[in-house]
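Tokens as discussed.
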């Protein structure tokens, strides 16, 4: 058998034209060594081919990621005010509620509207473009980030509830 890493890859069959000769123990040992080496060769060739495919896929993904980042950078630095928010703190709070037995997040948020504000207090602003700085008449992005995080996000009403519910549902 051609065995490599516990998997059967095939079999090595030997034949002879001289019917007078029987295989010896040395012949069997040689055939087993040959089968073992052939299995390693086949397995290594498969691993190499898989690694080459993975490298090509990774290179394609990196190229796509760079192109996407360039498109994002161009889009982010337009005349439209925008900022990037990190909701990982809100996601962690939602996970803690689930761990405490809250199964219906929508009902929980409806019953406790103050929790929406609590969730939004965990949201961090990662980046702010110049158009937002100008719109809010801030001296710079860091000042605007601090002001927004300190006084909270602009009043969103039902949008905040819907946004946190979407986050809880993984949308």
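Sequence:
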């Amino acid at each position: 058998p051609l065995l490599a890493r516990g998997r059967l890859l095939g079999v090595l069959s030997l034949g002879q034209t001289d019917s007078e000769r029987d295989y010896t123990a040395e012949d069997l040992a040689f055939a087993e060594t040959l089968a073992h080496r052939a299995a390693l060769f086949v397995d290594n060739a498969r691993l190499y081919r898989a690694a080459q495919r993975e490298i090509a896929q990774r290179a394609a993904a990196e190229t796509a990621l760079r192109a996407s980042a360039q498109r994002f950078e161009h889009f982010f630095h337009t005349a439209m005010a925008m900022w990037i928010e990190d909701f990982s703190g809100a996601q962690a709070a939602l996970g803690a509620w689930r761990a405490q037995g809250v199964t219906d997040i929508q009902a929980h948020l409806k019953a406790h509207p103050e929790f929406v504000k609590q969730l939004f207090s965990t949201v961090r602003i990662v980046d702010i473009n110049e158009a937002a700085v100008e719109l809010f008449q801030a001296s710079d992005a860091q000042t605007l980030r601090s002001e927004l995080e300190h006084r909270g996000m602009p009043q969103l009403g039902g949008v905040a509830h819907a946004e946190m519910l979407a986050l809880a549902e993984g949308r």
